[in-house]
Amino acid sequence: MRILSSLAVAALLLNAPAIAQDDLDPATMASQDGEPEVVAEQDDGPLRGTVTDDSAWQDLGIAIAAFATNRDVDTPANAQGTEALGLELARVVYNDLRFNGLFRPVGPDALPRPSYDQITAPAFGTWQGRSAEMLVHGFVRANDDGRLTVGCYLYDVALQTELVREGWVVSPAEWRRAAHRCADLVYSRLSGEDPFFDSRIAYIAETGPKDNRVKRLAIMDSDGANHRFITNGQSTALSPRYSPDYSRIAYLSYVDGNPRIYVYDIDSGRQQLVTESPNATFAPRWSPDGRYILYSMAVSGNTDIYRVRSDGSGRPERLTSGPAIEVGGSYSPDGSRIVFESDQSGAQQCYVMDADGSNQRRISFFGGRCATPEWSPRGDQIAFTHIAGDFRIAVMNPNGRNMRQLTNAWHDEGPTWAPNGRIIQFFRTERNSGDTSIWQVDLTGDNERRLRTPVGASDPAWGPVLP
Amino acid sequence: MNRIAIALTVSSALALSACNRQPPEVTPDPPQDVVANPTPTPTPTPMGPQPGSQTHFADAMMGADTIYFDTDRYNIDNEDMVALRRQAEYLLQYTNARATVEGHADERGTRDYNLALGERRANAAKNYLVSLGVPEARLTTVSYGEERPVATGSNETAWARNRRAVTVMITR
Asked: Which are the contacts of A428, defined by CB distance < 8 A and separation ≥ 6?
């Protein structure tokens, strides 16, 4: 093997600690050590430009070539070996980048395949000839210990310079995470926004007829891969929420015949009630630091919002009172405030209160109803379900101003934010059939697409960027 | 960008013109909605259904086991009172009978709010039964929100049938 010109980088990559195994299967979880490690990063500032003005970005052509390998060898990550895996890695990066409306990527299937040596010394002439402005190269190497080293490089073709590079050591089962990290690297470097592709979604998988629907708790990667059912469907499951560290999922289950929130521990597969109470509990929400869980509880028919420590200690605190329905709730990113819905005005509207329940005030005064508010992880927007005839996904400022509808369908409900606060997922219900599907839309409302799920899908809840 | 904008404009124009040709909101129920759920005929035994059993109760109520609500409402109207009085008479006659009141909402709401609304409706029915003398200890409630529709259409008729509180005997 030729010694790479970027010897220093290669050495860094090889010395990197093991990446964390985040496969949620408890059997493999126990044998894991360490965190995913960023092993090399170049620290230039982002290019100028903003995401909300996407017109300039639409024309940014990014070529994403198949990742090269030093030696085509067997790997559990791909039945055909590391060379085939290199193509798959680039496809994942391509699919991540193509759907957000910022870029015009060209994927590896339409591009020449660079050699291993060219990863650090691109044939810029070739790429200029293809009108590519940006170029993504990468490599994958099987290590002696069975793990994979994946490198990711972003080049400016016109300037013929490297903009950023990074590498990761991953277990074969986690190869897609390396691709998502690469997509995040490119996205962040070019847009100036925070990354979000390397994240997971909890949702409810739906099968069966409308009057006998089976609803199962399920999880998947942000692009729909690594799908897994958590519950078997014998009892209805609803409204999951990942804990901020991805160790637990709070969700509603009818497993004892009544609607109750359980906190499911992913490692052990065990779950416990969020609070011991004979009353119905629903609509669980985590605080950003994971220390509290908000839940809604109906006592003698009257629903209010409560807060309890997620470690089970202490007593639940009631945050709202009065005879109206107060339900849901979503923390501001700093944890100081909560946006929730109440029908105390006669119909569902959105309200904000301090995290201890004080200073409650209504913020939604536009036409229609305001339901399921979710505070953006950036803090600058609140997404919600706008009910005015049809149900649409909309956003507003935290003071209730500048309401904008992002979708237009018969019934769109339940927004959840990407970790960087630039994209929203929600679920869409079809009239009559009741079929559900998860969609995502960017903040312009222009780029909307359906996520592929194995069966019907509702109640998406997007977790943060993986640790 | 421009192409997308044009495509959107064209398609919304099409959608609008299509809408204008439709009669407003009135959609006939699909056939399966009109047919009431056939109650399974009780297996004929010499004794007949056991008093306090769900079958015995449902036979005695002849539809009065269910009350219906307007959109987002949970008040007990005159029609509901008639039905609840029949339920109360039954429960007062068969003093061993225990019941659950199930609260339901239609699909035209958000999931969590519908759970809360189902709680309101179930408790409204329960409270009325208690006011008629049924011991509270013999009644429980559960909300199913929008999760268990009896009518599967997406129209006002179906929604009206799904906004309901159903009293069900607890079999021991």
From this structure: A407, A409, A411, A412, A413, A436, A437, A438, A439, A450
